[in-house]
Amino acid sequence: MIARRQRIVLFGRTSDADARSVADVLRQETAGGVLILVAAAAALIWANLAQASYQDVLHLQLGPLDLHHWAADGLLTIFFFVAGLELKREFTVGSLSQPANALVPIVAALCGMALPASVYLAVNVIAPGGRLEGWAIPMATDIAFALAILAVVAPGLPASLRAFLLTLAIVDDLGAILVIAIAFTAEVQPLWLLGVAGCAGLWALLQWRRIRGWYFYLPLGLLCWWLTLSSGIHATISGVLLGLLTRAREREDDLAGDAGTPVDRWEHLWRPVSAGVAVPLFALFSAGVALSPDVLRTMISEPAVIGIVAGLVIGKAFGVFGGAALTARFTRAELAPDLKWSEVFSVSILAGVGFTVSLLISDLAFGDDKAMAELAKAAVLIGSLLAAGLAAVSLRRRTSARRRADS
Known about the structure:
Blueprint: E1 8-10, H1 16-49, H2 51-58, E2 61-62, E3 65-66, H3 67-92, H4 99-126, H5 143-153, H6 159-183, H7 190-208, H8 214-231, H9 236-244, H10 262-286, H11 293-301, H12 303-330, E4 333-335, H13 341-350, H14 356-365, H15 370-406
Helix pairs in contact: 1-2, 1-5, 1-10, 3-6, 3-9, 3-10, 4-6, 4-12, 5-6, 5-15, 7-8, 8-9, 12-13, 12-15, 13-15, 14-15
């Protein structure tokens, strides 16, 4: 008699270790989301009340880069380093290390990137004067913002949905990293790239030999960042690369008392810096869009703006939800018994809150057209606010329905 294959449970109960990891990330990213919101609001107020002052600060030259580029190329490298550590842990020992568990968030994330890009391209192909180069802007999800909204408006939803959103955003980050590395690298300098490869190889060797000490890794990381910046590849890629090369597994012969792997230790060290300092400062120096009446009138008829907003609000929601639903339809996966598809759709709407990476890609996509880059950033802010508002209403209704069912 042939044994029946076990069905995969979508968004089932997480293990105790995974639950603790998710809880730690939720606390730090939620606090970071509040700081990002404050920084973005401050940037908007500053840019609209004192535009000249804001621009002077942005273009203040500090060494080889101005303040805006230090934030985008320097501070965001910390954010991407933490993203690299997350990816290494999740794909090595975390929830994505098991193919059955990884299938749903990967498919949902891929659909949640493909559909927004397709919506953007459709709008800009059909409409006269469309700008195709902004196709990647609505692909990203800002996990700090999304988790902050989820924690405030829907604290009663199951932890498995929060874990799904977190895992989805991790895979989403990987997609954004690949897009930045491939689509927005104009010209590569091979000799500098060899230097990057040498730094990465030395980092991996130090990890393999279990060498500890910040005095080895910090100078090596800074050198790798500088070589990456000089090579023509966006400097933030160095953070991801080094994060992925960091050791995530314990070894049987590790010294007793070693407080976790380097991935665990460094993520615990650097995540508060990323969520509490690096990303809020980037928001302060990137989200300051002057919303004059002329700009608002231009936005209404600009295909790129319409494509970004539609991609974030419509493309993300239906892409993520459709990916999860298709996985359940065409595999042996089924929804956990304590969840409803309406709750999954509410979380999918929340994935349309794009901010940090979307703002970065706006600069990269329209770098030679500052006016268009400003319009794209304004579209990111509007689309993210719309997605956040719709998600908040939907999540509130789902939470109220769950409370009534439990009473």
